Automatic annotation (TrEMBL):
Keyword Membrane: yes
Upper taxonomic lineage: Bacteria, Pseudomonadati, Bacteroidota, Cytophagia, Cytophagales
Protein name (record): Uncharacterized protein
Chain ranges passing through the membrane: 220-241, 247-267
Keywords: Membrane, Transmembrane, Transmembrane helix
Entry keyword annotation includes Transmembrane: yes
Amino acid sequence: MVSLEAKSTYLAPLLESPMPQFFVGILYEQSDLLPPKLQMADSNSLACNMLHFVRCAEEAQCRELYQQLQERKPNKESEWIYNDYLVFSLVCAVKRFALPSTWVRQLLTLRISQDEEKQRLNVTLGNILAGNLNSREDYHQVSLVYQMLTGEQVPDEIRLNKMFKFLWRRPFPFFTSPFLNLISLKALELAFNSKGLLNPEQFFATEHFTGRFLRRTQRLAAFVVTVPVVALVLVLAVATVCYPDNGWVKLGLALTSAFGVDVIGSFSGLRDKLQTPVTTAIRRAFGYSPPPANPPLYT
């Protein structure tokens, strides 16, 4: 399809069904992409066709399909309203072709969820409908990709920077939602292109390097800690046998016992206690700054 899809191992797990594959084709402007046959009972079919109408600026067909959908009277148990691809495509269609938005707003109010990702996605889609693309509560990558698909306006530089920093610090997959992951990968590419930074494949190479770096510094710390601990244990063991009544020997035994080490039996307690701070020190020495455990979304 596109080079990013062909070369990146990140996209592969997300493309196990036709809907994500078609969505990637839309995002990366696949030239020969055609939607599946329209089936009103299939929410993925509706999403694909709606996205195709938005991409190709086919207003008349989009308006006709939207009018048919407006006749539906969904409730909180209607499964199709939880299809993120479909609701996103409806929001894009409403904004691009100035369609009535009341019905889509009602869908968003019905999409009740305890999941924070889904809650924030709903807030983001609602803000897009309202024309507010820079809200603090948004997933800005969603509004950024919306802007790309509809050609609405140039992205806000401040929000672009915050989105970039937020995603850069998170491990992949960024979210549990495949939809948000695909959106985020495209948003990163747009940020790269906008700022003249690394291309996406270089980004993924950097991500692989980060993983290798963390593993190697952990092994280095284990080596650095093990050698002196083994030497300490051997020295104390020999001293205990040769000088059992020596005050310094007794002090050494007391200190190692305080670390949870049985000099005669093992040294794993002291080694394990030292490995974490030594690993942290080595990484800091090389300039690595770990991301926060629970990074804020957008502030």
